[in-house]
Design goal:
This protein has one domain: Rossmann fold (3-Layer(aba) Sandwich), CATH 3.40.50. It has an eight-stranded mixed beta sheet, with helices on both faces. The protein is built from 13 helices and eight strands. The longest helix has 17 residues. It starts with a helix and ends with a helix. α4 links the parallel β5 and β6. About 40% of the residues lie in helices and about 15% in strands.
């Protein structure tokens, strides 16, 4: 199936830059947003399942990743810019409203999008990363030590890439996707671009708070978290219920880690179809 996806890649000109994306299927639209260090291929299992169920599925390489453009300036990765990319892509493909399914940094973008552009989001599914307004705990700091390291441009790149990305491999726990991630990050400017997401949005000067205020989400929301996630804190996802007004559902997936959509794709697909509604059945 992945080879079919490859043939359907397209490019959108958004705010002067090129955004690589895939768009196929017909029916209600679902927009997928990946995080660090992924690209649109992260969602290959979910895109297949949802398109077969009667959805139009759209996934992008967010700026700095995959085949999308990689600005060199840190401010080019601030949250409002990232949200504008998603809004721009939706406009480009003619979608006024969509279900948003998002992971890791993509979930941060999703929370910001759903709160600032509520009319564009029908249902919202953040995976791994809860609402950006969360109480920081010792456990959270211990898990997210890399956020601090990534602030140091040059040093961080050298640390992560030396000895064939040895530290990066350890951080990723040698996940089966690691080889693909390294191949993407070895592209010119890619590693710095990926880390610039952290530098632009989690600056120590702002107390690691986003440069954009993220409010409550009015769309029905389902948070998903892998019980073995070693990178992010579950409490952040659980307390996200305090920032949703349209209904909150929480699903904890046993035996799955940070990349729950890859670790247990069949169950995640079932959760999505159950929460979003099977599009083919809605149209009968």
């Amino acid at each position: 199936m992945l080879e079919v996806f490859e043939a359907q890649q397209k490019v959108a000109k958004i705010d002067g830059g090129e955004i690589n994306y895939v768009d196929f299927g017909s029916g209600p639209a679902v927009v997928f947003l990946h995080g660090f260090p992924d690209g649109w291929r992260l969602w290959r299992h979910q895109m297949e399942a949802l398109s077969n169920a009667g959805y139009r599925v759209i996934a992008m390489d967010q700026r700095g990743f995959g085949d999308s453009h990689k600005p060199t300036e840190v401010p080019a990765y601030e949250m409002q810019v990232l949200v504008s990319d998603v809004v721009g892509l939706m406009s480009h493909v003619g979608v006024e409203q969509a279900d948003i399914v998002c992971h890791d940094w993509g979930a941060n973008v999703g929370w910001a999008l759903a709160s600032s552009e509520p009319d564009k989001v029908r249902r919202f599914v953040p995976i791994a990363s809860g609402h950006p307004k969360f109480a920081r705990t010792i456990e959270g700091f211990e898990k997210s030590w890399y956020v601090f390291v990534f602030q140091f441009e040059g040093m961080a790149e050298n640390l992560m890439s030396r000895d064939n990305f040895a530290v990066f491999r350890q951080l990723m726990r040698n996940h089966p996707e690691t080889k693909r991630w390294i191949a993407d990050l070895e592209r010119p400017g890619a590693l710095t671009a990926a880390m610039n997401w952290y530098r632009a949005n989690y600056s120590p000067a702002r107390g690691f708070a986003l440069p954009m205020d993220v409010g409550s989400v009015s769309a029905p929301t389902m948070g998903i978290f892998g019980e073995d996630d070693v990178l992010l804190q579950e409490l952040r996802m659980i307390t996200s219920s305090q920032h949703t007004t349209g209904g909150w559902r929480y699903e904890r997936v046993s035996g799955a880690g940070h990349w729950v959509q890859l670790d247990d794709p069949d169950y995640v697909n079932w959760l999505l179809l159950d929460f979003l509604g099977r599009a083919d059945e809605r149209r009968v």
